[in-house]
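Good morning,

Attaching, inline, the backbone tokens for the sequence recovery test we're adding to the shared suite. The designed sequence is right after.
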């Protein structure tokens, strides 16, 4: 009897093994299905992220084109209203001198030419201003520190209601050449935004280098705003100045940060690491 029982048990083992194998296969199939579903979800998420990135690139491209067109319009206006008018006055003055000389009124012609000398000087000043707005020549000739000194001096001469506190703890050699124009443009745009929107009377500008980190900071005591509202705005309602600063920081491998609170001012900072 014992031998029969043993033999019967041995005959049932293959069936039990098959049942266990089917169970394992089912679990494996469920695991594969779960993995496939998870991968499908990840693929869909990647697709959505790629679509969002494309939409963001299109939005930024449109804003960059808008910035370019606005800048071209500003330059055209400066040339027409500033330099164009100066050259028109010079042309009229030369015609008057020609008529005076033809009439042998040499004394009056000399006085007219003396007046024209001042007009030509004003035209050169206007041309220099436009050129400096496009790209400060001091940036290439003298460096970033001299350019910032010129910018602060020009700003203080034209905007007496706002005081600028400066903290420039850097050496000229601390800043790579390609980064100099980026720093100047971000600073220029930030202060321009402050004048137009912040209603501030004090701006603190800091440019310091600590070890392998360069930090630019522009802080005002103006009205401030809610950055979350700005993010929720439609692309056409977002400030082009902020977009420009953020993109300049990104392209130069800097980290852009905006902090603002209603009634407590705004702080813009850009950090570059050279480690």
């Amino acid at each position: 009897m014992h031998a029969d029982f043993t033999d019967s048990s041995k005959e049932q083992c293959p069936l039990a093994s098959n049942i266990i194998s089917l169970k394992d296969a089912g679990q494996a199939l469920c695991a594969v299905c779960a993995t496939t579903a998870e991968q499908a979800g990840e693929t869909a998420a990647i697709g959505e992220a790629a679509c969002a990135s494309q939409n963001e690139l299109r939005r930024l491209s449109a804003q960059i084109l808008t910035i370019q067109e606005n800048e071209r319009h500003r330059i055209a206006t400066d040339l027409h209203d500033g330099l164009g008018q100066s050259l028109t006055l010079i042309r009229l003055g030369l015609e008057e001198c020609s008529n005076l000389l033809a009439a042998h009124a040499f004394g009056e012609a000399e006085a007219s030419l003396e007046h024209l000398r001042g007009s030509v000087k004003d035209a050169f000043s206007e041309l220099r201003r436009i050129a400096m707005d496009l790209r400060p020549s001091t940036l290439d000739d003298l460096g970033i520190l001299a350019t910032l000194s010129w910018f602060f001096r020009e700003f203080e001469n034209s905007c007496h209601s706002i005081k600028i506190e400066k903290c420039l703890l850097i050496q000229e050699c601390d800043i790579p050449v390609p980064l100099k124009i980026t720093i100047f443009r971000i600073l220029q745009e930030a202060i321009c935004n402050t004048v137009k929107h912040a209603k501030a009377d004090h701006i603190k500008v800091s440019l310091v280098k600590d070890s392998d980190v360069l930090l630019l900071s522009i802080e005002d005591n103006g009205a401030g705003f809610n950055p979350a509202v700005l993010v929720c705005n439609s692309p056409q309602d977002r400030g082009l100045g902020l977009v420009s600063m953020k993109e300049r920081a990104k392209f130069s491998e800097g980290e852009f940060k905006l902090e603002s609170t209603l009634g407590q001012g705004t702080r813009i900072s850009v950090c570059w690491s050279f480690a």
